[in-house]
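WARN no homologs supplied; continuing
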Amino acid sequence: MGPRQVRAGLVGALALTLTLSGCGLKSGSPMVDDVVPGSVGQGQPLDGASLTVTSKNFSENIILGQMIGLVFKAAGAEVLDRTNLPGSISAREAIIKGGADAMYEYTGTGWITYLGHAKPIADPLAQWKAVRDEDRKNGVTWLTPSTLNNTYALAISRKNNAKYHLRTLSDVAALAKKNPSAVTICVENEFASRDDGLPGMEKAYGMSLPAANIKKMDAGIIYTQVSKSNSCLLGEVFTTDGRIKAMDLDVLVDDKHFFPNYNAAPVIHTKTFEKYPQIAGLLDPVSRKLTTEVARVLNAKVDVDGQDPHEVAKDWLIQEGFIKQG
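OK structure emitted
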């Protein structure tokens, strides 16, 4: 994602990836789907290519990685599936070193985590352009971004919001001023202390929540607490999480654009892109269709309904007409 997956297992993942990419080893399994071009891949422009796709190890990014692989396959390539690598760093290193050719990455992760900038850029397109331009030196080519934005947000249950009619974070700030005891919030430990988390958000919106109103817990529990109990009015969520839809939550608009943009965009190992520039024409139409709402629906199929990410990706690509079953 965005914020959450940047954190997990970075050191071990880095060691693993350096081991893999350092000796040129490509682990993974061949994609064996019988798929043919639909609206993309006509004429099979990747015929004869052998390409490796990768992803981080959370549902959304695995789904997106599978989409790339299936599109490449329909366009005639032999595809090796190296999705579900541990943490952000291992997938990133695979793209830089050429252990993998393509994945979906997030603009905020590129800008803040990989390129080391403390201050995000508020405009999503400007953020993408800045990442694209600066990451060229690392041998990484960023293609056109989607509007899918997997960032932090606060959510409230529709049931509770019938009373408060909150729509934006400014509405929350106004309620906190008028009725301080009403605004209780469930957050992860890290969000409670990060500058791009709760403290920064309070500052940006002129809020000052009493410590007693802030409850810290694991991310998974937050959704249930906000949906099913009255222990917290608001909870920290990730904007593309499938549980938002499944648990009937309203996501509040970040009207001051405080949280960084984490728009998903394909990233390609630059030498691969130089060899196969037609990749852009294959993936740009897919990215144009990927929205935050589409991601919520697809993520729910995996995280709520227990479906296989590969099948979810394939069904969506076929449904949208990008590829066809062979």
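The first strand starts at residue 29 and ends at 30.
OK
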